[in-house]
Write a structure and sequence with these properties.
The chain is of the alpha/beta class. The chain is about 45% helix and about 15% strand. Strand 11, helix 11 and strand 12 form a beta-alpha-beta unit. Helix 4 runs antiparallel to helix 5 and helix 6 packs antiparallel against helix 7.
């Protein structure tokens, strides 16, 4: 990290009522003194000033704005920070950028550089930084909730506690390396084994969360399966409340698997419309059916949809019926009361996709399954594949650990386990992964 002062637009570039420009670094006070008329010797941190924003060369007024000064170390980055709230026209923004770029030792920030500086200055660890990135990317209320929890340190606290326990074990072992003639006391021997065992079990439990974090991040996979003309595309249109799919009485209209992203009561859900499953000689349709079966096998939830006017669902259509299968009878608007009563007794959900009847019951059932099968007992979820890989690496080292081999080898197992956890939070040298993490941030963050 260099010592240059950085600046960037933190709001979207283009016409807007207000734009926010952030500046961080040692030149902030100098910048305030030269682009405003404020007395920098008496400026109050965390206090909003309404002032003219001036070109530092011509002294012409660029805009009237609000500025806020945050004094180091009490700022987002831990450095002196200035926020300029000006009007969001392209002309104003370009003039401000031109002025800032004219200062020596001041440059445009790289993507994620503000958060990267916050990490280097101890304002957050890597898990909190990535929680911030997830919050910026959050599209549903559940994604927002877990991102906030990660920003507040839930993962950091959990991983730090494991690392501290292992570091304590490591310190004991290293002490006995220096005194090889000494035997480890029985109580300490048992304490070391218990600590390692307990940590291993907690990490295993953390890893076994039904991949809820990955689903929460990327979407729960719900596949609509059924025979041709069961009304799958009509159901998609009812769920999305718009004509997303082509609806036709001609069997085989849908030949591809089409994914639709939805926010269902705060949960990101990927609804997949598949080709009707049936015996056909059409080679193109066969490809669609094979794709449908593959989607079904990889689904979190399968909606087994059938035309209730022609009978019940044919289980032969699902060679390996998934555990989380919802049987849905469509076209109930064409059924008699006796037929409806019979299907209700089978605990099937009754809908009319054409008229939107029963759709809310189906949505409630989907959410019920998600909550019961993909819910973590902990507020700390694995939100990155690199966390999972590091924890698996840690477990492998702990599995190799025992006190029956040479103490130097046992110590190295614990040391490598500590290092694996440290890679998650940034407690070890992780320069090689920092660019990947912060490079995904937007400029100005």
């Amino acid at each position: 990290m260099d010592n240059q002062t950085i600046y960037a637009l933190s709001t979207v570039y283009g016409k807007s009522g207000v734009a926010v420009i952030r500046i961080s670094g040692s030149e902030v006070i100098k910048i305030i003194s030269e682009i405003t008329s404020l007395d920098v010797n008496n400026i109050k941190p965390r206090y909003a000033y309404f002032t003219d924003l001036k070109d530092n060369v011509t002294r012409e007024t660029i805009d009237k704005c609000l500025i806020l000064y945050f004094k180091s170390p009490y700022s987002f980055t831990g450095e002196d920070v200035l926020e300029i709230q000006c009007h969001g026209s392209k002309a104003v923004l370009n003039s401000v950028f031109k002025t800032l770029s004219s200062f020596d030792n001041v440059r445009l920030a790289e993507p994620g550089e503000f958060s990267k500086r916050a990490f280097y200055n101890g304002k957050m660890d890597l898990t909190e930084a990535e929680g911030l990135a997830d919050l910026i990317d959050a599209e549903t209320s559940e994604q927002q909730k877990y991102a906030i929890r990660q920003m507040e340190g839930n993962l950091k606290n959990l991983y730090t506690s494991w690392r501290e326990n292992l570091v304590k074990v490591l310190s004991y072992l290293e002490a006995y390396i220096d005194f090889p003639e000494e035997e480890i006391p029985e109580n300490l021997y048992n304490d070391i084994l218990n600590t390692v065992f307990k940590t291993k079990e907690e990490i295993k439990k953390h890893l076994q969360n039904n991949n809820v974090s990955e689903r929460l991040k990327n979407g729960f996979r719900v596949v609509i399966a059924g025979a041709a003309n069961a009304g799958k595309s009509s159901l998609i249109n009812a769920l999305t409340q718009k004509n997303t799919m082509i609806v036709s009485d001609i069997a085989g209209t849908t030949r591809d698997a089409v994914d639709i992203n939805l926010d269902i009561k705060g949960y990101p859900v990927i609804i997949t419309d598949t080709a009707g499953i049936r015996i056909t000689d059409n080679p193109i349709e066969k490809i669609g059916i094979d794709m449908a079966l593959e989607k079904i096998n990889n689904a979190d939830i399968v909606i087994a949809l059938y035309d209730a006017t022609t009978g019940s669902f044919d289980n032969k259509l699902l060679p390996n019926t998934p555990i989380n299968t919802i049987y849905v009878a469509n076209k109930i608007d064409k059924l008699t009361k006796e037929n409806i009563y019979y299907l209700t007794k089978q605990n099937h959900i009754l809908i009319s996709a054409k008229y939107g009847k029963g759709i809310n019951l189906l949505i409630e059932k989907i959410i019920e399954i998600i909550k019961s099968n993909f819910n973590s007992s902990s507020n700390a979820l694995i939100t990155r594949e690199r966390y999972r890989a590091a924890l698996i690496n840690c477990l492998e080292n702990l599995d190799r650990f025992n006190l029956n081999k040479e103490i130097e080898l046992s110590t190295e197992d614990i040391r490598m386990a500590c290092r694996a956890i440290g890679q998650i939070t940034g407690k070890v040298k992780v320069d090689e992964i920092l660019d990947n993490i912060f490079g995904s941030f937007c400029i100005g963050k």
